[in-house]
Structures are given as C-alpha cells and as structure tokens.
Amino acid sequence: MTPRDPALLQGEVRDLTQQYKDGGEAAAWAFQELVSLLLGLTVLHSSSHVYIAKGPAKGRFVLGHPDRPLRLNDQRFLRLTQSLYLDRAAMEPGGPRLKVLESSYQYQLDQRRENWVFRYDYLREPRSPYPYPRAHLQVRGTLKADVLAPGKGLRHVHFPTDRVSLEAVVRLLATEFDVPTNEDTGVWRPVLATSEELFRAIAHRPLSGPEM
Amino acid sequence: MSHNGPKLEAEREESAVGDAVVELSRDEIIEMIERGARARCNMSGAELVAAYRAGRLQDPGEVADLLMLADLLEDDDSFFDAA
Predict the structure, then answer these.
(1) Residue A184's pLDDT is what?
(2) Is residue B6 over pLDDT 70?
C-alpha cells in the first residue's frame, strides 16, 4: 500500500484545527475528525471508530463512545473521553469557542475498565473541592518501596503533569508500548508534530495543584 | 465489536451529521450512568455524580467516562437532585 503523503496530511490537520478554532457546533465535528485522523494514522484498529455524543444540554459534547473504548492494533484498548463545550463568553468567527472541560486517556488491557495500565486526566475547572493536580498521571502498578500510607497503592497516586496532549499519548503507545501503527513513522510523526504544535499554542495549562 | 448494554435507539436512526455522531436522549444518558455506576461502584448514578461534585470520590478518573456523560444533561436536570 502506498504510504500517505505527510505534507497533505499536515495540511488536513491545519484545516481541521482551524475549523475547530473557528467555533460553533461545526467545531465539534471538526475536532472529532481531527482525533479520528490522528488515531487512524497511528494506533487505532480498523474496526474501531471515534464517536462524538450530544445530549439535551446545548453546546456540550462528549468525545468517545460511553460503552466502547477504542480497540487498538495490539488488541488492547484506549478509553478516550473528552467533555467539550461551546464557551459563549469567548466568540470566534463561527460561533462560541470550543473548549475541553475534561479529558481522560486510559490505556487498558480489555474492555473491562478495571484492567487499566495508565491514565492521563485533565480538568479545566473542577466542579467541587478537588484535592488532586488538575492534570495528572496515574499508573496501575506496584511500588517496590513501602512509602505510601497503609491501604494506598501506586494506582491512587496522582503524579502532576502539564497538560498532556492526545498526540503525546499516541506516541507513548506507539513507541513505549509497541502498539503497531497504521502508517510508518515517516508519515505519522510529522503529522502528530504539526497537530501538537497547533494545540499547544492554544491549550489551557492548569496549575499543578489545588489553589486552596 | 461487542459492547455492554442495549444498542442505543439514536444509533439506529440515520444521523444528519454522520455515523460518528451519537445523539443521546436524557433517558439514555441516565441509563448509561446508572448501569455503569451500579456495576463499577455499587451505587446509583445520581449518588456517584453527587459524590463527585461534593469532592467525596477517591478516584474520579476511574469513572471519568460516566461523569462526563452527566455533562450532556442540562444543569438543572432533576437527576442531579436525586441523590
């Protein structure tokens, strides 16, 4: 199969990014397309799809099917969930700006959510007292040193991170967890780099811990 | 691909914006939250969301998929008063 042209794909990423930056409901569809593109070039199994859900609340969307974690090429799963909203206090040419309220990227062994490996979480504005870093990593593993309080396991530790992009998680899966990719590195690396650079230019970056 | 729970009605209908968009009714959203909360946390969906909003959940990330579903409900939905 002929590899896809990274330059064309980078152009597609720029177009989709601009579409979601333009705001309005179309921004949500463009965002879904962008995520589908990035995952489709890389770790997503051909049988899986990136869904976006809408409900009664206007201007709110959830990326990721609630009952279907994404099947990856290693036959494991990525529970990708993002809560999106149109911020009517921030207007763009196409309408209210699309923002991420929360995101969660969880790599798991199977469709059962308790068999997870690691999870990156991000919250823009916690609704309630939230004692953890608003962007953090958790790992379901075992510490060799006995340094945690009784009953507290490594999985309960919230390691503070900066806002971790989907692109970073995809690279982690592909390079450290050896999830096969649908295109060669010469195709997807420049595409992820372009996408991530555009994202970082506008991404909200929370503090590493609670303010109160 | 198998999934837990009944196929959503909205998915059977043709969507004007493509197969990737799932339009969920209030009842469908609440049913999914309820089913997930019972199976994974041994509590009702309303209790789960109330616990999260009161800062009483030890690991909200483990049920982030359920909690974000609640974001699709109107802010004044009676579901949030049910716990």
Answers:
(1) 96
(2) no
Which residues on A lie below 8 Å from B20 (Cβ)? Answer: 32, 36, 49-52
Q: What is the DSSP string of chain A?
A: -PPP-HHHHHHHHHHHHHHHHT-SHHHHHHHHHHHHHHHHHTTB-TT----EEE-SSTTEEEES-TT-PEEBTTS-EEEEEEEEEEEEEEEETTEEEEEEEEEEEEEESSSSTTSEEEEEEEESS-SS---S-SEEEEE-S--SS--SPTT--GGG--EE-S---HHHHHHHHHHTS----SS-HHHHHHHHHHHHHHHHHH-----SS---
CA angle A57, A98, A196 (to 5 degrees): 140
Instruction: Say whether residue B61 is in contact with chain A using an 8 A CB cutoff.
Output: yes
**Under an 8 A CB cutoff, do A49 and B19 touch?**
yes
B66 reaches A (C-beta below 8 A): yes
List, for residues A34-84, the tens digit of each pLDDT value: 999 999 999 999 999 999 999 999 999 999 987 889 999 999 999 999 999
Nearest Cβ partner for B72 among A48, A62, A121 = A62
Interchain proximity B1–A71, CB inside 8 Å: yes
- Please answer yes or no on whether B4 and A131 come within 8 Å at the CB atom: no
Task: Give this prediction's pTM.
Answer: 0.90
pLDDT in tens, A101-158: 999 999 999 998 889 999 999 999 887 778 899 999 999 999 999 999 999 999 999 9
ipTM of the modeled complex: 0.89
